[in-house]
Each structure stands twice: as structure tokens, then as C-alpha cells.
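EI: anyone free to look at a 268-residue chain?
SC: sure, send it
EI:
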Amino acid sequence: MGDLYALDFDGVLCDSCGESSLSAVKAAKVRWPRLFDGVEKPLEDWIVDQMHIVRPVVETGYENVLLVRLLLESQVPRVRTSSVAQGLTVEDILENWLKIKPVIMTEWEEVRDELIDLFGKVRDEWMDNDLATWIGANRFYPGIPDALKFASSKLYIVTTKQSRFADALLRELAGVSIPPERIYGLGTGPKVKVLKQLQDMPEHQGLTLHFVEDRLATLKNVIKEPELNEWNLYLGDWGYNTRKEREAAASIPRIQIIQLLDFSNKLK
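SC: here you go
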């Protein structure tokens, strides 16, 4: 017997908010160059700071690009085209992102797949031109690299990040090599589908199943699937979630709130 851990990447293993925010600013400038004409560094810095606060709403990376533009429009009336941007606060975004996102996608006439491609391309170019700086804009949470290296459990990465970026960070920053077939990234389907695939593999029969996430909404999606009742579910309290979400999770019997040190010890 033994244990299988399916691990989210951003917010569980790696704090990538610095890199994703900077990449989103770069991508937004490519997508909407006229909006960013005359935007000075102090405002850009403010946007990046706010991105750290609103990061819990992001499910897939391209949403960072939308958030950058929305924050800009909330501050600069001359570029404002969205009906929701005036007077918008980060608290409004944290509370209402699922309602705001479809509105701005429609108003800005944006296409999800095009934004995903753009965000990936900007990251690829940054990596190609200056890998050290790109790597340096990320950090693994304390103790995680060693926990991954010395894990006695079977490990899988289940993330909405594009696999090549997760793989590069694991190798270059954490010094960890996880076989590509164990990294389920963007495009491999919803996480509930991946968890079903993992539990059905013949080599995993008899293993105790664990799924570690930092997004409460994702764990709730797992709970809705009776087929996934065998999974032990954990919400990492160090990741991209809010106190309100942690309090909500504490009231759900299926979910265990786990601290970083306990998580590292479990993997080992």
C-alpha cells in the first residue's frame, strides 16, 4: 500500500504571483498598447501590488491579463471602457470576480483561447530572453523542494498552469525532476476529470488518495462528484485564498485545512 498525492502547483508548491503579475502587465501592453500609452511606472507598480491581493480569484493564468486591464481602468478614466471599472475596489473583485469576468470579456470582445496563447507566448519570450530573471520572479514555499525530493509517496502535479512552465520551475528553481507524464497542466481537462483518471489507473489501486489545493471552489467541485469520494481533500492555508474562504472550508467535513509544515512532513 502507500499514498498518492495530487498537488496543485501555484499557491501550493510555488508562489508564482510575482512572475504571473509581471507577465500579465507585459501581455496587457501587447494586447492593448494604446491603453498603456503614458502609463508611468508608479501606476504599473501599484497594479502589480494589487495583483497580489486579488490573486485568489484567478483560476487560469490568462485571467491575470484581464485583471491588469481592469485595475488600470479603475484608476484611469480616459482608458475606461468597462461598465464595472468605475469605483471598483480590490474587495469588489474578490467578492464578485465570477460575475465581473464574463461582463468584461464581452465588453472588451476578448477570446479566452487567444488570451491563453498570448500569456504563454509572453512567458516563453521572457524565459528565452532572460531565464534567470523569469525564474527569480517565482519562489517555492519554504521546505517544498526538499519535501518533493524526498517524498515517499507517489506524486502528481494537477494544475491549470501550462505544463512547460511548471516543469521548468521544478527543474530550474526547486532542483526536482518529475516525469512529464505526471504533470497534468492546462489542456488536460478539468481537475475532477484528472483525479478520476488517476484513481482508475490499475497501478494506483489500493493507494490512499490525497488532493491538495489552495482554491476552495476547486475542492467543492470534487465534493460534487460521488465518484471522487475516496479522495482526502486539503486546503493549504499558505496559498492564494482568503480568510473568508478558509473559514468556509473549516465548516465542510470533507476538507482538512493543512499548514505548510504539516504538508511537507506528509509528503516525506
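EI: The beta strands are 3-7, 14-15, 139-140, 154-158, 183-184, 208-213, 232-236, 255-258.
SC: 👍
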